[in-house]
Amino acid sequence: MDNETEKMIYTAAIFRNTNVAEIARTIGMAPANLYRKMKCCTLKPAELTKIGKVLGAEYSFYFSFPNGTKIGKVEKQNKKEIKTA
């Protein structure tokens, strides 16, 4: 694993006691396709949002400025953050 999104998905899957193949099937994607998208960094924000919903989490994608302004797709944020290895 060499990209942050891939690490994030694997970590979240472990946290929810599931695996990437099961996540893929649940969102209607072939597991091989999801693995490829993760490896090639081609997952779209909408796909990451679907993955988040499957995991019972929320995915947010936005620019955050020092004054607190957020521009982009802003959804409710979790107070708890889990660091990836």
Record field, number of beta strands: 2
Span of the ends, CA to CA: 10 Å
Indicate the CATH architecture. Answer: Orthogonal Bundle
> What is the radius of gyration computed over CA atoms, rounded to a whole number of angstroms?
13 Å
Shape: elongated
Strand order in the sheet with the most strands? 1-2
- What number of domains? 1
Average pLDDT over all residues: 84
Number of helices in the DSSP assignment:
4
**Are there runs of 5+ residues with pLDDT below 50, and where?**
76-85
Determine the fraction of residues in helical runs and give it as a percent range. 40-55%
* CATH fold group: 434 Repressor (Amino-terminal Domain)
Instruction: Name the beta content range.
Output: 5-15%
Specify the biggest β-sheet: 2 strands, antiparallel
Structural class: mainly alpha
Helix-strand pattern = HHHHEE
The CATH class designation is Mainly Alpha
What can you tell me about this protein's structure?
It is a single chain. By secondary structure, this protein is mainly alpha-helical. The protein has one domain (4-73): 434 Repressor (Amino-terminal Domain) (Orthogonal Bundle). It contains four helices and two strands, in the order ααααββ. It has helices at residues 4-15, 20-26, 31-39, 45-55; strands spanning 61-64, 70-73. Strands 1-2 form a two-stranded antiparallel ribbon. A hairpin with a 5-residue loop joins β1 (61-64) and β2 (70-73). α2 (20-26) crosses α3 (31-39). The chain is elongated and about 40 Å long. The N and C termini lie close together (10 Å).
